[in-house]
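Hey, I'm writing a tutorial for new members on how sequence and structure tokens pair up, and I'd like a real worked example in the thread rather than a made-up one. If someone can provide the structure for the chain below, I'll link this post from the tutorial.
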Amino acid sequence: MMAATGKAMPLCAGLAVAASSVSAAPTADTGLTFVANPAPARASALRGAPSVTVSAEPAAGDAAKVGATTALVGGSVLGLTASAAKRQRRQQRKGALRVATVDVDTAPSPPSGEDDMIAGITGGGGFGGYTNSNVTSRRVEPTDQQKEGRQVVKIVYVVLESQYQASMTSAVRQINKSPGPIAVETVGYLLEEIRDPNTVAELEKDLDGANIFICSLIFVQELAEKLVELLKPRRDGLDACLCFPSMPEVMKLNKLGTFDLTQIAGGPLGNFASQVKDLRQKSLAKNKPASGGSFQDSLLKLVRTLPKVLKFLPGDQAKDAKTFVLSLQHWLGGTPENLEAMVMRVAGGYVKDVQGSIDTEVIMEPVVLPDMGIWHPLAPVIFDTLDDYKEWYNNVHCPMAGIPKDAPSIGIILQKSHIATKDDGHYVGMVQELERRGARVVCTYTGGLDFSVPVQEYLTNYYGEGDVDTLVNLTGFSLVGGPASQDAKKAKEVLMKFNRPYLVSVPLVFQSFTEWQNSQLGLHPVQVALQVSLPEIDGAIEPLIFSGRDGTSGRSIPMQDRISALATRAVNWANLRRKRNAEKKLSICVFQFPPDKGNVGTAAYLDVFGSIFAVMKELKKQGYTIEDMPENVEGLQKSILEDPEASYSMSDLNVEYRMPVDEYERLCPFSNDLYENWGPPPGNLNTDGKDMLIYGKRFGNIFLGVQPTFGYEGDPMRLLFAKSASPHHGFAAFYTYLEYIFKADALLHFGTHGSLEFMPGKQVGMSGGCYPDRLISVLPNLYYYAANNPSEATIAKRRSYASTISYLTPPADNAGLYKGLKELSELVKSYQGLRENEQRGASIVNSIIATARQCNLDKDIDDLPTEEEDMKEVTMEDRDAVVGKVYRRLMEIESRALPMGLHQVGVPPTAEESSATLVNIAQLDRPDMNIKSLVRIICESKGKDPETVYKNSDAGVLEDVQFLQAVTEASRAAVSALVAESTNNEGRVAEVNTFMQDFVSFLSGGSPWKKALSERGFECSEADLKPLFNYLQACLGEVVRNNEVPSLISALEGKFIEPGPGGDPIRNPDVLPTGKNMHALDPNSIPTKAAADVALVVVDRLLESLKQQNGELPESIAFTLWGTDNIKTYGESLAQVLALVGCRPVPDSLGRVNKVELIPLEELGRPRIDVVCNCSGVFRDLFINQMNLLDRGIKAAAEADEPLEMNFVRKHAKEQAEEMNISLRQAATRVFSNAAGSYSANVGLAIENGAQVDEDQLQEQFLTRKGFALSSDAPGELTESSDLFKSALSKVDVTFQNLDSSEISLTDVSHYFDNDPTKVVSNLRKDGKKPAALIADTTTANAQVRSLSAQVRLDSRTKLLNPKFYEANLKAGYEGVREISKRMRFTFGWSTTADAVDNFVYEDANETYIADEDIKKQMLDKNPDALRDMVQTFLEANAKGYWETDEENIQRLRDVYQECEDRIEGVDFMA
């Protein structure tokens, strides 16, 4: 029916807001004026009546009228700011306040397991173990009656999160119920659902019949591409296509009449991709500024400046642009009324059969919340100043809620869309839990994704420091950025100034509650990358899940037990800030691994007891209550290691507390769950048969405790299980004691690393039933972690909620030469002066050959002449070649970096030690910083190319070997000259004074380092040296900064710990200074281009070496992937796998690596090599998306229609498909790891603990525990596939691992041999042939590929057999002896898994440590337990046939073993 004016009459309630019941206000989202408060009376509120704009601040007399008609979202006036409603609030204070949209049961709920979290949540199963495709719940169809006489408009939408589902459903149902020209059918899809082919088919059918398509936040590259693929051919058939903030390729599909976002002056799309890509690259670059913002913020900026833009556009384009922006505002408004208006506006303006039947001029304007503000579920309004909020909170809410004014204060960051769409139940639950604990709460939100703006606006004091005690981010996003980008630099600056603990908790987005609950992996991999990894770079801690998603309605549902835990943890951090130091209780936990008295206080490269003593001294100085503190380190150590009440043996540890079984079962809420693996308490571990024993010693408010071990280290059957067992009762009792009896305020786990974080449970996003979560409970957890191990530190952060504090690894010196090797070096120098003397030169070469053979270098020089050959009979060039090859091997050993001794927390390196570190930093090119390496500068000063010098030196060209050694010595001298300028009388660097250095250089005519080079014959220009040495000066200052203890003190005071990358300080000096909260990296950023370039060099050398040895390329390589290695190298190993297969990583339009493409065979120039990937459990946890990437690349190669002789991936997959009766794609599965929540093959555990397990069982262990396959067709699932694993390994020709750091080599840890499949492959191959075992060593600028046995020899010569190594460790006492014993055990491990240890290594080690009476006595006196373990290793090596020796050696070992036993038992026959 038409009105008299000729315009269409209002068709159904809600198209505009009645003038009598609204007020309009300029919103922060836009520069336009929009209606602020629609009345709830739907007949006149949203559609139909003309819109009237009124004052933003109603008069006092209007307050009651406005208050009576305002719509609430989460209990707050929609869009009404505090300043606009001050008088209105005063009127309303006396009235009852309305609770938010969801009522939450606040009854206490103990975290007894997953089942107690929440009930009544639907969903389950789902594609790939994740997002349940329940599209039906998002499909709304009009009834036949509603369709009658109306045009049906079909809308399809795809969104990242589900909070719009309820609003869209409600909006469409309201349209269908109301009279009007249209009825609407709508169906929604969650982005992750379109991984499922069945869902894609359903989406295609829906799109074919759709009029309008809507999408938002499409930022997952592969899914964005899939959506574009579906949408692009159907775009012309759509009447309208609204693509809100998403990837640029998605945004380009926007269709709204003539509207083109890229043509609007200042529009963000044109340069959006390049801006974000540039931002990501800058975040990876060193010392470069990064700019902030996000695409959503860019769009909001466009919205605000729309009036200025529209006047420059043609009429139709301006109209269409305005419609797009209004639609975006409706979308951001999020309420059913907003979405209803958006649908009516777009349908009336663009759906062909509807145009003209709806008067779009009278449709309500967008109703939006202020872009930024302070929200509270019980507040009457959104507040726009902290003072206004405090006035209401202090005077109205707190008295009513009984919250004291001096209570701990928690700041919370929220996402505006959840408030706008009334999907805020999880937020309400969090606020209620905090206030129920007596805490004060300030909740702030923003419509953009730069959350630092409201934090600085509302949560800081005058100086920019936090005005709250703890900051909790409930969005899950990084502080600055979102799913598209991150500005970690800005976030760090804000959080450092804010200086409060910063917790980022995660709402489930891509899974329903049930899907997450049933998942072994836990949080969806995409969400881990976006909402765990990125916030960690900002400095975030404790990624707890706090809300689930209803699989039917899509609404966020609070998880009561998770919210309870999060609230308590936030308050506990706040209490650290408020409590006096004298009252704080701290538990320091040390580790013992393997379980033995000689191993108490184990930690990588750390003097544990010396460090603890230093920390305790500082704590005492800070006012902590420490009683009966020992006078020295030895006294502290003795207080733990010896129980004065032990009646039978001195080997018992000190027992601090005996916990009766009934007390344990009463206090430990999960003790019954341990019966399955361990039976009833007290069990056999950490018990005297009656009580549970808590080992350690209490010093007033400090408890120094010994964490129990896993408990199954020596049990062959338990080691074989595919999945790890639960903690034993003794382990649970230990943490029960800390929380309930000692009542610790915080824990400090001391050194790398313990067992808690590796207990069974989900990988990330744990439930209350996961053992790390149960054990750590609600205690703040601080953790000293080695700076070079970011991967395992990240596991500790995610699974035990640790705030890590990095410590420096020992400074590295060059290994040097000793004994026969030193004698050989002197012979080489003699030859250099007499090489042209036919008689004497040849005689010296004969001596060189004989000595080289005595030193077993003939094993590393294939064509070394025999001693019978006379060098007088060959040419001088041939003699040079022999000497060059020997000299090259000597220099390889001499220049190898050797970590010296153990680090003590809080003690910076000396000037000499700092110099050694800087020499290694100086040898690497840093092209991203335009800094040349010192080697390159020196080489170029002589007109030489360093790559050519390296290549010739590797080939044994004597001239180049000599030149390279001269370069090495000159480099050391130059760097030493730099350090000497800042060295004080005590041999330490107190301050780096660059001004004085420059001044002295100016007066003396050149820098000290230039002079040092000149004295050694290298004339390098000051201009070439200046960039490098400026950088080295900056690095020197960071190396000697002492931040390890101050960071701990700050953390215990409830302050923010500065975040920083972990890794190799040589490759990445940003790791320095230590004392940082370590993080890994953005997993979507690797492999970088630089890493891919290095990978190509390594792969070329690997294949070239294998072709020279075997005359042909290998068909299949077993490849081990490590988490730490890929963090340190930015994905070199990943890139190597892709390069072997013939794939290249392809960055998306945002610079993220989410895609691979096959390199054409013509370009590749060789066959595709098959690769079987064995991923460590840590790699799986950190880089599961990259595992998907590898799987996609390998399967693409298998499916490529190429000749089998040029594609070994396809060749083997076809063979396996036929053998196993499976599809080609299944047969091409090559990416394997442990089961979720399990780590390692347990081979290392068995060997370290001396478990009596034969090789066959160890190999079966490897296959059982590592045989879980990942498939990109079901992302996130790891399925038991040991048969497929065996089949793939049976075709392997080569096993391969990478070494990326001189600090952690093959014999430093058990991890490398734990994952080595060499003997496994040999037994699986039909021909029984042992595969070639190779190692890529990229620890220096001159990358090498060596055989495994050659690498073990190099390691043994530079460490185990090197006087520099054992003398430094003997000085370290108890812990140093343990380091020596461990290295012997780890060397033995390579015999067990690969037969890679030469007999001379055992023989020389026995001669060094056992036959040498002085060294043996030192070890016996300092740590008899560790010496006994070492003797056991020798005896076992002989018994298993790995070491052939004479009976005299064996008898001596037996005698020494008995000597150790007597010493341990306290027997002294000499007394």
